[in-house]
Amino acid sequence: MNPVIRNFVDGVIARPRWVGMFAALAAGYILLTIFTYSQNIEQTLWNLPPGANATDREVVANQLRAELPVRCAFLPFRLLIGWAAISLVLFNVCKSFAPAGIIRFRQVFAIQIAAEMIPLLGSFGAAVYALATDSPHFETIPFNLTAIIDPHRSAVLHTLLGSFNLVQLFYVAFLGYGISRLCNFGKAKAMLIVLSVWAVSIWCNALMMQYVAQEMHLPL
Fold it and tell me: Which of 32, 38, 134, 153 has the most CB within a 10 Å radius?
């Protein structure tokens, strides 16, 4: 592993100060939400029922615009809860294989927060790429498995397949490396644990996307 990455991971493990990293991530995701919100509204309006007239579209658009401050205000709490849940599962799985007392939840959480910087950068890149290419799926990272289905067929399936991309590969690799350094696991064992937890989180994200798709009138 690159010495810079190794030293960074070892520093996170030795000093698991996650608050500053989380604040930077939350600010980044709020900026991303604002940056892509107009496209979100356009996509929602495009998928309204055929019977919706101009007045209906204007009402929906105004309602979505009014919701933006609330969405941004609650986004850090949603991120914190989601990442803490993943870290808690990862911590308990690792704890069952590691010697007693070798790891702390705070360390696992700090590694998780550090790893989340990778998807954030990927999401910004995807948004810029989509705007440059007029792609309807600005939230999806390029170089993924979505090419095997019709992009308008299913918002949930599109999101699920979009999770298998190069950015997520780097994310899982970084997280696996961090767990191997923290718990003194072999790389194969650490990767197997991380991949299992990651798969569960992706499935939960797909279920959440199903709810969002229903609320925003996107095809399921």
Answer: 32
118 touches 170 (CB < 8 A): yes
Q: Which residue type does 185 have?
A: F
Tell me the pTM: 0.79
Q: Say if CB 185 and CB 201 are below 8 A apart.
A: no
pLDDT score recorded for residue 65: 83
Q: How far is CA 3 from the centre of its chain?
A: 27
Contact 138, 42 (CB under 8 A): no
Percent of the chain surpassing pLDDT 70: 79
Which alpha helices (H) appear in 47-186, and where do they start and end? 54-97, 105-115, 117-133, 155-162, 166-183
Phi, psi of 165 (to 5 degrees): -145, 175
Which pair of tokens denotes residue 173? 């690799």
Residue 194, C-beta contacts closer than 8 angstroms, at least 6 positions apart: 90, 172, 175, 176, 179
| Whole-angstrom distance, CA of residue 141 vs CA of residue 126 | 5
